[in-house]
Amino acid sequence: MSVSEPKLSTISQSASFQMQEKLDNLSKPIKGLGQLEALADQLAAIEGRIDLQTVKRTCLVFVADHGVVQEAVSATSQEISNVLADNVANGYACVNAVAKSNHCNVEVIDVGLFGDSHSPKMIDRKIQRGTHNILVKDAMSRQDAVKSIQVGYDIAQDAISKGNQMLLIGEVGLGNTTASSAIVATMLSLPVDVVVDKGSDISTKQFEHKKQIIKDVLTNRQPNKADPIDVLSKVGGFEIGAKIGVMLAAAENRIPLFLDGFISDAAALLAEAMYPGIAKHFIASHLSKEKGAAKALDYLGLKPLLNLGLAVGEGSGAVLALSLVDVMQSILTNENTLGDLKFEYEN
């Protein structure tokens, strides 16, 4: 893989059109399934076929810490990241429970936890032990930023080589909404106040402190929106870079990529800046509670499938959206056609 010379697959407008024709011929009102039909059209466009391949799916959960937690921007201490990450790796977290009901595999990859995992199921691709405190220093070197993308790309290619037909991304780690807010504010040239939210369950006083920290970070780091690698290296995170790599691998291989929440949205902004048009390969699973999420998705031209006020992370929202994919597959497989009924709707 060359970060500078990707080979994105073509989005098939003809497959999307054929899918809509098929849906219009089913025994239901034209466009009666609303956004579910748009989902099927988008999947067909990404895959380049109308016989959608959706059975085998994996959620890749990248875990990493952020040095900015030293500035008291999170509700809990840094040590909790290891506990939460190991819980996902061991199969007992929210995303695992949702994945079981949606027939989805979950893999957990350490790309930057401060501590060491105690789970034998954790995949170790640690780049560094967390990012630097971005208030006082760039998050990572430019070299490590590129490495994080490569790690994610390699993990995704391995999943694809094992036959996965859809990929989903999630994350665990403290401080990630602070970094993501900085990314979104930078990439969309927006004031911090209109993109940042509480993230974890912090007090109003702590929230005001968090906003000021992000403003100071952007003043101190001066990330260059014209250079997304610069933004990633100055204010990003290892899990954010890894997600960009997954996005690239998916887009190269005609694999639908399901975004989770705000952290994925921030990564998608960087990916789109690096590889224009790549966002057409993404499915926005849900609208995160973070204020900047809607602005990021609007910019990317993505309409979230769900709006349930989710704020779990881990990839749980992305996995939950798979239920809608399975519903559409059942409709495409089991619903009869207007021809079967010898009936047509009048225009």
Question: SSE layout and pairings?
Answer:
Blueprint (H helix, E strand, L loop, with lengths): L12 H12 L10 H13 L9 E8 L15 H11 L3 H8 L3 E8 L10 E2 L17 H20 L4 E7 L3 H12 L16 H18 L6 H8 L2 H15 L4 E3 L2 H13 L7 E3 L6 H10 L15 H19 L3 H4 L6
Helix pairs in contact: 1-2, 2-12, 4-12, 5-8, 5-9, 6-7, 6-8, 6-10, 8-10, 9-10, 10-11
Descriptive account of the structure:
One of its GO terms (molecular function) is nicotinate-nucleotide-dimethylbenzimidazole phosphoribosyltransferase activity. This is Nicotinate-nucleotide--dimethylbenzimidazole phosphoribosyltransferase. The chain has 347 residues and is α/β, with parallel strands linked by helices. It folds into two domains: 13-51 and 331-341, 5,6-Dimethylbenzimidazole Phosphoribosyltransferase, Chain: A, domain 1; 57-323, Nicotinate-nucleotide-dimethylbenzimidazole phosphoribosyltransferase (CobT), large domain (Rossmann fold, 3-Layer(aba) Sandwich), CATH 3.40.50. 47% of the residues lie in helices and 9% in strands. It has helices at residues 13-24, 35-47, 80-90, 94-101, 142-161, 176-187, 204-221, 228-235, 238-252, 262-274, 291-300, 316-334, 338-341; strands at 57-64, 105-112, 123-124, 166-172, 257-259, 282-284. Strands 3-2-1-4-5-6 form a six-stranded parallel sheet, sandwiched between helices. Helix 1 (13-24) packs antiparallel against helix 2 (35-47), helix 5 packs across helix 9 and helix 6 (176-187) crosses helix 7 (204-221). The longest helix is centred in the middle third of the chain and has 20 residues, at 142-161. 52% of the residues are buried. The mean pLDDT is 94.
